[in-house]
């Protein structure tokens, strides 16, 4: 039930912001501060989410195979690999480190 | 036209990663598919299932997903001028207002090609995203322990891939750095899902500090 409530709220919220952009008169959200903030908000959220999903196990911080996987993804990004290859690198390296028992 | 198809195919396939992550995070097949059908904005979906898997409450998890989706409003603003859609069409077009459709449509030279780019990207992404979500969720159920296959690293890798092109200037890097510190630092002491929301405050904080520094520079 908890999951369905979360899904329902997310569905409504995410659709509402998409529609709002198309319906709001041009200029209403065009103030420079608002635009800067809207561009920076995803940066903060994505950075925090990346870090948490790499180093968190419940409410404790751990260093395990996922860190090696993320390292591989970072290398792939620096080498300008396509999106899927970046994700694949993370998955394969994480699985590999676990298979040899290091994580 | 070929741009639109290329983007649609490449990103639609990452729906597979979402299906696997969501199923691995404990959501049912119906819940996973409902998210891709009805939310249809990848980063928010990954954030929601990640927060729920970590034990976050329904509203804190949904809030994180919502704030990630706010950027779509700004794509919509620019697209509504460019595409000049009739009012009756807008509620239907809205569901397709995402990173990739905006990128393709805004790159077109004319209104006609922008409309074609938007529709082709939107349609191909929507179909592929939902199909691959289903396959990913089924695949995850079939292979059992998703962690042994390293699939729990797919979510953060997707976030990192979305984040990397945004880190253009020092301001973005400062926001990202502060958000990582807040997200990890607060994790042990606050309920699941809340640290991410507080980490979002890195954006206004850095913006405010930037404004102050610029203000002082102007006085000198």
Report on the architecture of this protein.
The complex is a heterodimer of chains A (103) and B (220). By secondary structure, chain A is mainly α. Helices cover 75% and strands 4% of the residues of chain A. Chain A has a two-stranded antiparallel sheet with strand order 1-2. Chain A contains 4 helices and 2 strands; from the N terminus they run ααββαα. The model of chain A has no long low-confidence stretch (mean pLDDT 89). Chain A is extended. Chain B has 220 residues and is mostly helical. Chain B folds into 2 domains: 2-155, no CATH class; 167-220, no CATH class. Chain B contains 13 helices and no strands. In chain B, α6 (71-83) packs parallel to α8 (99-106). Chain B is flat. Chain B starts with a helix and ends with a helix. The interface between A and B is large, with 71 and 97 residues.
Task: Please summarize what this structure is.
Chain A has helices at residues 2-23, 32-55, 65-78, 83-99, and strands spanning 56-57, 60-61. Chain A has 103 residues and is mainly alpha-helical.
Cα-atom radius of gyration of chain B: 19 Å
Q: What order do the SSEs of chain A take from the amino end to the carboxyl end, as H and E?
A: HHEEHH
Largest sheet of chain A: 2 strands, antiparallel
Report on the biggest sheet of chain B: none
Q: Which geometry of chain B do the CA atoms define?
A: flat
Query: Greatest contact pair?
Result: A-B, 71 and 97 residues
Descriptive labels:
heterodimer; A: 103 residues; mainly alpha; two-stranded antiparallel sheet; 4 helices; 75% helix; extended; B: 220 residues; flat
């Amino acid at each position: 039930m908890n999951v369905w409530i979360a899904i329902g709220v997310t569905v409504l919220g995410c659709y509402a912001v998409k529609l709002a952009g198309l319906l709001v008169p041009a200029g209403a959200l065009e103030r420079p501060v608002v635009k800067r903030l809207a561009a920076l908000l995803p940066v903060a959220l994505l950075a925090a989410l990346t870090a948490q999903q790499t180093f968190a196990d419940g409410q404790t911080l751990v260093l395990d195979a996922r860190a090696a996987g993320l390292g591989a993804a970072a290398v792939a990004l620096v080498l300008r690999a396509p999106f899927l290859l970046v994700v694949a690198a993370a998955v394969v390296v994480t699985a590999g480190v676990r298979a040899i028992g290091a994580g | 036209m070929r741009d639109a198809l290329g983007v649609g195919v490449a990103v639609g396939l990452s729906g597979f990663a979402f299906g696997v992550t969501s199923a691995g995070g404990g959501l049912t097949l119906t819940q996973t598919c409902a998210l891709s059908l009805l939310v249809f904005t990848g980063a928010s979906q990954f954030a929601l299932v990640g927060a729920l898997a970590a034990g976050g409450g329904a509203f804190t998890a949904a809030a994180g997903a919502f704030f990630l989706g706010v950027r779509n409003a700004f794509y919509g603003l620019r697209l509504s001028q460019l595409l000049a859609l009739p009012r009756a069409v807008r509620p239907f077009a809205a569901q397709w207002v995402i990173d990739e459709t905006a990128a393709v449509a805004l790159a077109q030279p004319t209104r006609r090609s922008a409309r074609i780019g938007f529709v082709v990207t939107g349609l191909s992404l929507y179909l592929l995203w939902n199909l691959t979500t289903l396959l990913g969720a089924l695949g995850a159920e079939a292979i059992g322990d998703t962690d042994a296959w390293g699939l729990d690293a797919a979510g953060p890798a997707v976030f990192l891939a979305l984040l990397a092109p945004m880190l253009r200037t020092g301001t973005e890097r400062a926001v990202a750095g502060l958000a990582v510190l807040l997200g990890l630092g607060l994790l042990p002491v606050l309920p699941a899902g809340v640290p991410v929301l507080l980490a979002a405050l890195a954006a206004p904080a850095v913006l405010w500090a930037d404004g102050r520094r610029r203000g002082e520079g102007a006085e000198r």
